[in-house]
Structure formats: C-alpha cells, structure tokens
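In keeping with the milestone schedule agreed at the kick-off meeting, the structural modelling team has produced records for the first pair of proteins. Each record is given below as a sequence line and a structure-token line. The laboratory manager (R.T.) confirmed that both were archived under the project's standard naming scheme.
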Amino acid sequence: HCISQFDHHLAVLGQKISQMAILGEFTSTQDVRRFFVDTVRGWTTGQSLPATTLTYAETIRPGVKAGLAVEAEAACAVLEYVPPEKPTPLPPDSGLGQALPRVAVKVGKRFGLAIMAGLVACFSVYLITLPFLSSWLANVLCNLSGIIAAVIVYALQSRWTKLAASRPPASKEHGAFLPLRGWPQAEQRLSTWFSSRLRHAPPSVREECERLRQRWKLTQECQ
C-alpha cells in the first residue's frame, strides 16, 4: 500500500512538471532538475501527503528519506527541457492590405479558368453542330454550352478550395510537442528504488550478529 501511494505521488509530480513545462514556467533544463530535486526533498521534511507516506516508510525501513533524496539527485540527470518554438511574428504590413490582393488573385484565377472552359465548350459545340444545324441554332447551343461549362468549372473550383481549407494542416500538431523529456526514466528509477528498499529489508542487528558468529565459528549465541 505504501509503495502504491508513493507511485501515485510520483505520477502527480510528473503531471505537474509536464504542465509547468508546457506553460513555459521553466527556462532551462537546470530549472526542471532543481524543481524536481527540491520537491522530493520537501517530501522528506514537509507535512504534505507524500511526506506522510515517507514518514510511515521511514518507520518500516529507517534511512528511506535520506536515501530517496540521494536517489533523486541521481535520477534528475535524465530530465531535459526543450523550450517550445516561438511563433514567427507576422510582418507589419501583413494585414488587410495584403489579404485583399491575394483574394483578388484567387478569384481572378477561378474566373480565368471558367472562361477558358466556356470558350472551349462553345467552340467545340459550334464546330460539331454547324454541319447539321442552322447557323443561328448552332450559335444558341454553343453559347448555352459555354455558359454551362463556365459555371460548372467555377463551382468545382470553389468546392475544391473549401475541401482543401477544411483539411488539418500537416504540422507538429499531429504529434503533440512535449518540452519535458526523460520523465518516464526518472519516475521508473525512483519507483524501483523505493519498491526494492521497502521489500528487501536490511539485516537486523541480531541477524548480522548471527551471520558473523557463523562466519567466525563462534560458540556463543547472540542474545
């Protein structure tokens, strides 16, 4: 039970440090490591819930608090902080003055393609129908086909533009950027150390005395 509580405290600490790193509350890797070590040391002396867990562990295995502080110093070496990239500031004149020309160019391209499609359809229908129909009827059909072709091409271009705009941009957002590196290794190291420290008790004075007696083949038993 004590081991599971300690693992929970480590998980909460990891979430806190990760959130602080994302919010940019650290400036360097040393800041992250210092905060980590100071927090674990605070558990060995404070009155918080993790401190209560360690106080109980200390009664079971004396020296746990001091050993944990030393282990935290070693475990913090794997922690690294990578500052998130700052967004590139827009040029001073990148406002409505540049947006309007871009919109005009896009609309102009759409109209140009639509007109070209209409002309191609118009001439094609005129050349095909002229040998079989009267001149005025061929003109009517070619004009109608040109208008219909132009409208269809312009509508398709607008549809393609909306579909392209609705797609998510291929950027770093597909994989969340995490400025904190190495936390799983640090957490695993402290968890393993604490678990092994509590599960494997050091020999008592009587056991150590009995071991020495058997080693040196003494006849007097330890009291």
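The second protein of the pair:
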Amino acid sequence: MRASIFILILIFQSIAFAQVKLDSFFGATHQSFGGSTFNPGNRVLYLSENYGFIELRPEAKLGLKKNAVVVRPRVRATLQPTIDTTPASSEASTIDVWLNEGYAVASPISDLEISLGRQIFQWGPAEVLNPSNLFHQELLARLEPFYEVRGKTMARVNWSVGQQWSWVTMAELMPLPDDSFDSMTQIDDESLRRLQTKLEFNWNNGANYLAATAGQREINSETSAGIGGYGAYTLNDAFQIYSDVIFLENTRTDEFDFYGLAGLRYTTVGGTEFRIEGINNQRGLTSGEFDTLRAILQNPFFAQFAAPVLQNNDSPLLGRGYVYSSVRYSLEKDWLGMMQPMFSLRNLFSTGDQSSFSSVNWEAGLAENAMLYIYGGLAAGQRDSELRQSLDRSIGLAVRISL
C-alpha cells in the first residue's frame, strides 16, 4: 500500500500541468432561401429556415515534463422544426459527436517537438485562405465567427534554430475511427496521403517573415506535387503587404497550376484594421463550366449532393478569381454594459460573375466568462451566380459560456 502511494506521488510530482476547460455555445439562426436552379422553392433540398444549436467544446491538457497530451472533443446538437414539405427521411434534429483534435506531443531535446494524432496546424498571413498549406486550405471567413476547421490526423515535427529559423514537416496518417464523420452533417475525414515540409525565416522580431513549402497529396489515386511559400513584410506601423501561393502539379498536362493570393493590411492608430486580398486559382471553374454544373444540378438526384459544396461558406472556392475585403473596429470603452465590443464586416467578391457574399459580426463580453455574438450574411448578384445560390441571407445570435 505504501509503495503504491509513493509511486502515485512520484507520478503527480512529475506532472508539469493539468488543464481542463469547457466552452459552451448556445444559439439560433434564421436563413432565407430564394430558390435556385437546383433547389427551386427549396423543394429539393428542404433546407431549414430556422434552427437552434448547442455546441460543447471541452478541452483537456495533461503535461508530463516536456511531453503533453491534448484532447478536444466536440458535441453539437442542432434543433430545427419539421415542416410539411420535409421528406420523411429528413431529420428534424441531429446530434454529432467527434474528436476535432486529439494528439500527443513530445520534446526529446531542446527546440525539437514531435506531435502525433489529429490536430490543426495553420500558417500564413492571410485571413481568407491558406493556399500553401496542403492540410488546411479551407476558407476561414465563415459566417459563424466562432467556426473552427477540422483537425487532420498526422505526424508533425517542428525544429527551431534560434529565434529566426524554423522547420516543420507533416505526414498525413490514416484517419482515426470516428463515427460522426459518417453523419449527414459532418464532412468525411478522408486521407489524401499528404506530405509537406516548410522552412521559415523571420526578422525584425517576427514582424517580417518568408517561408518556402514543398509537398504532395493524392487525389483519385494520382499523386501531385505542390511547391509554394508565403511571406509578409511590415512597411511601417500602419501598412503590411503579404502573399501566400502554391504551384500544384496537374497530372493531365504535366504542368503546374497557380493558386494563391496577395494582400494588404492597414491598421490605424486607434487599432481599426482594414484588409484586401486578391485571389487567383487556375484550377477553378470558368463561367462556361459553371453553366454546365448548374445544368447538371437541375437533376434532383445530383442536387442533393450540392448542399455541402454550394451552401457552406467554408467550402473550397470553386471559381478562378476573387477579391476579399474586411474591416475590424474595436470600441475603446464598454457599451451598454457590454465589455470590449468588436465589430467586423467582411465581403467576398467573385470577379467571374460579380456575385458576392457579405457578413457582419458583433461580439462583446457580457461577463467575465460569457461572450455575445450577433452575426449575419447577405448574398448579392444574379440568381444562380457563384456566391448567390439558394441562400439569400442569414442572421444568427449565440452566447458562449466558458468554464
């Protein structure tokens, strides 16, 4: 008995830290659908106009000397009323449980870190996309301000040389067994056998940096290479220019297609931030190809598969050219009892058909552990244009409670 107690004491003494926290989101959203070629009168997809949600985001960190285990499971319940036109197979409510991140990290020697498991690893200066990252290229400017990207199962090695140089290599592993990825409301966790490495150099205390990336991924049993990079240069206290690009191998033409962006950030003395980013994707659909896609989607059988691509703001961009702009303004003083309120306005404009999607967000603290979010979105352009499909506008409200 005494030996067991002694062993337990030694174990607990070696634990550097143990942290557990929980973020809970409670909200509701209203959406307005104007109909489209593939969803006329909302009689094909039967998308819900009103729904509520509860999302729990627990997090546990356990540190053992220079090693740690991080677990971030997620639980989301979506509640929506049934309507007479809804097919019997449609579900009024759904509950999804998944592991967004779960990994172990070890540091066998100084400046070397090894991570294994499902995790998120992003880089780059841009706000809307991360083209040079083969693992996480998703659109980050989703309507919900508290949206988070999904983790990927990988092995990752980070090595830092002094304060200026860093080297990272990531290799995708087979997905973890997770039943929630098979649900209708979640994206399948599919391995593309990604492999990527990057080398980054920064100077001026991190205000400026430049990185080169190289990697490959497998799509439809064909492996394609990608070579790219990203960087940012701070001109002065107000202006910063940046870029994030990749050249992806096209296995059909044996050439490399360009996918990237260039941006400018301006920050006022008061802290208000303005951004503008130009995006070009040589692999995107042309206007003629979009017309063909819309014709195909007139078939109800194919239309049911369009929702994940055309209705989610976090889906990869399908066109060739875009302009993204945003402004963020933080109030210096509390307002109507709300602490540190922040207002943001974002717009994504398609240069192909002049459609756009704008979103607005207001967030402020209600208490030390409570945050309020009020957000909305508006699509503009011709009906059936790229960024104005079935969804016309949306508005939502949510509260986050942190424990």
